Every structure is written in C-alpha cells, then in structure tokens.
Amino acid sequence: MTPAGPQCPVQAHGGEVLAFPIASGHSASPCSLLLPTEHFSGLRASGKMLVLLLLLPVCWAVEVKRPRGVSLTNHHFYDESKPFTCLDGSTIIPFDQVNDDYCDCKDGSDEPGTAACPNGSFHCTNTGYKPLYILSRWVNDGVCDCCDGTDEYNSGIVCENTCKEKGRKERETLQQMAEVTREGFRLKKILIEDWKKAREEKQQKLIELQAGKKSLEDQVEMLRTVKEEAEKPEKEAKDQHRKLWEEQQAASKAQREQELAANAFQELDDDMDGAVSVAELQTHPELDTDGDGALSEGEAQTLLGGDMQMDAATFHDRVWSAIRDKYQSEVLPTDLPVPSAPDLTELQEEQPPVPSLPTEEEEEEEEAEEEEEEEEEEDSQETPPPLVPSQPASPTEEDKMPPYDEQTQAFIDAAQEARNKFEEAERSLRDMEESIRNLEQEISFDFGPSGEFAYLYSQCYELTTNEYIYRLCPFKLVSQKPKLGGSPTNLGTWGSWAGPEHDKFSAMKYEQGTGCWQGPNRSTTVRLLCGKETVVISTTEPSRCEYLMELMTPAACPEPPPEPPAEDHHDEL
Is 160:167 a contact under the CB 8 Å cutoff? Predict the structure, then answer.
C-alpha cells in the first residue's frame, strides 16, 4: 500500500532504503541526514517509534551518505561534495580517494573501510550490541571481528550476525549486576541504620562509663588508704618476728662457735694447765702461715698475738677466728668407714706381667718405695679431719623461719584482704579506662560517609589458597599463614583509606608489615567491591612484598539508577 503524501527515502548503511511519509502541507528538502542502522533495527522492533514519527508536524527526512567504516559521530568529516581533509590536518585529497584502497593520509583516516592503512580504524556498528572500533588491517582478512560481520564485506567469508545474542547475554549480565547492586544497596542502607543505632548506644555507654570512672577513682583512692593503714602494723609485726628469729639464729651460731673453740682449746692444751702455749700450738702444722708445711715458733707466737701462751677466753676471742678454717681436730670421727684389706686376687690381676727377674738394685728401690707408701697410708689414716661444726639433721628446718604468732598472722590477713580489695578496684578502673578508650576510638573512626563500613570493625575474614590462608581483619591487620601449619606473617596493619580522590572509600591500605628478606616491609591494598555478601574473593602479589586483596561487601554498593518502566523495551544497548 502506497503511503499518502510525499515520501522521504532514508538510506541505511547496508544499502536498504526505508520510506517515511511527510506530513501534508510541508515540503521536503534534499535529504542530508543518514540514520545509523541500529536506529532502524529499533524502529522495526517498535511500532511506537513509527507512531511518534508519524505524529511529527514536520519531518525533515534527508539522506546522508557516509563511507563504510565511519561512525555516525564522525560522518560530518566526510562530505562528498568537497575535498576530504585528513583528520590530522596533514593533507587534503579529492573525496573520491576516500576508501579507494590506497593510503593517502598519514593517520589513515582516508581509508576507514579498507585495509590500506595499517594505522587506520574501522567502525563496527554492531546493531543490538556495543559499537566497536577495530584496526583497519583486519578488514577483509577472513576473520569476523565485528559481531555484525560488516568488516568482511568483500572477503568471501559469510559472517554470522551474533550481535543480538551478545546483546542478550550482555543485558543479562548487566541485569544481574544491577540486581546485585540493588540488593547490596538495600543491605547497605540497613548497615547505615544499624550503625546509627549502635553509635547512639555506644555514645550513651561512653557517657555512663565516664560518669562511673570518677566514682571508681574515688573508691580506688579510699581503698589505697585503707591498704596502706593495714600494712603498717603488718610490717611492724613481721619485722619484729624476723628480728627475734635472727637474734635466735645468731645466738645459736655463737654458741656453736663457742663449743668448737672450747673443744679445740682442750685438744691444744696437752698439759691441761688451762693455757695453750706456743709449743702446743706447733703440734698442728696445718696452721702453717708461710706455706713451708711446718708451724715455726715465730708463726705460732704471732697467732697467739705475741704471747707465749693464752687462756681459753682470750683464745676464743682472738685466736679461734684466725685458725678455725685450717684447724684439724685430733679426734677421729667414729662414723668414718674402716678401710678393708685389699683383695689379693684383684691386686694380682692388676699387676702387669714381669718379663724378667729384677736386679738387686731394683729390689732395693722397690722396697724403699713400698715403705714410703706404707708410711703415707698410715699418716693419712692417723691424720684427723678438720674440726667443723656438726651438720644439723635437717638444715632446711633450722634455716626456716618459724610460723608467725596469732597476732602477727591476724595483721597479715587484714592487710592481705585490704590489698585484694584495692587490687580488684584498681583492675576494674583499668578495664573501664580501656573500654572508654576503645569506645572513643570506635565512635570517632572514619567508617565511610554514613558509617556503612562500621560492621567490619570487629570482624575477620579468611581466604584459603593452595599454599596459604589469608586473614583480613578490617581496620586492624592482614596476615598470611602457611596452609600446612606455621606462624603467621604480618602483611600490614591499618593505615588509611586509599581510594582515588573522587572515591576515597573504595580501597584500604595496610602498611608496615613484616619485612621481606633484603626488601621493604610488606603492605596490602584491599579493594572493596559491591556484593550481597561480605567475603574475600582474591589475593595476589602484583609486586614483591606488595599484596592486593579484594573484599566484596554490601557497604561498597553505590545507589543504583532508577529502574526504567517495564514497557520501555529496546533490542539494543
């Protein structure tokens, strides 16, 4: 059926001409506008667009031709009515040399639809999908690069138009992404509201803690005074108890020393005349002072303080302390084991075999040596051991201070109770001060424009790979631990927000981790991605000791654009 009124032919890029009626009463000018094929696809699919065009009072439908491989946005540079100027301005050529399969322009702009210029570009319209620029040298190379196949118009290759299917998959992907964004943003608003409520609760708790802190400080000071008052009688009673015990120890020691000195005096006083003389002292050569093995008369007299003899009292006061460590008692202890006769068989076994009979001189020498050995053995058996104080049966019991008396113990118990109460109150004050510091830090922390990232503050998330377990504790640290066991490595502690200036909260920076061998300290950048769940999705090491981690979280979801009406459906993107 022929439409009423004049018609304006519109030529599509593929050569197809569509005719639209012009409203009655208006004249048409020469066609000078070329509509891209993607618009025609939309028109064929949607009758509403035709209705809109029919209702226009005037339709300046014109025909504008553009060379193959030129985008609609660049068509005005290609006017066939005048010479073509290379887009870089370097050369002007006749228009009929455009797409003549010969490269005239340095930038290749005169051959957008052929492979003549290696640096040129060909525009794929890709109706139903995304437009695309490809290298001109790919045109007619036997490979379908444009999904609509327009790049292989003269290669003999038939390219299947896959733009519609690609567009459908692209729309599905975009719809899924849009759904994730919408759901993530919905959760983000919940997180923001939760933080507002939690922040108000924390602020109220902070006020309560700060008020209670003053009361607790006063209680701590009061209990400190009570403790100090209770410790005074405790200290006095304990000091008195120790003093008495030390005096008893000193008296007991002095008595033992007195007994040792008296015994030594009796042993030295051979004639029992009540005095120790120089001659009697000389009977103990172990008291030798010059190292010649004998105590001379002069050495003995010096030990006696220049006197020829000395009574018991003066001996104890002046001599005993000087000779105590060297003096050997003349009394043989009864508990020493009696040496047993050697086993003759053992002696015979130990003696080496005698190859020949000894001479008379050797026999005399052996007899002399045996006599000397026998004399040394007799001397060693007769020499009494040093006179030392007898060891107590249980030295630990003697050295141990006796238990406190009832009154001293009562003072100790009272002071300990006061100390316990003070320490408990002081510990409560420290805990309260720490809680106040933590609340102040959390309330003032930058958790994003509306506090949407606050829920991450007390959480940790892990990602397990073939070798390692990566652990992210937002706003605290990042670590790495071998999967098969071992100590964790610090990959950085919280530094700051590290996104670009226009999107500051899109990344986190963790710094000053464990140092690498002959390298810098480890650091980690955490990139935040929109998602319905909070999960670490990847960890890489783009540079040595510099890690990149991706965390999916609803808090990173932007506000989605409003959904278009359901009836507005388009085939192309």
Answer: no
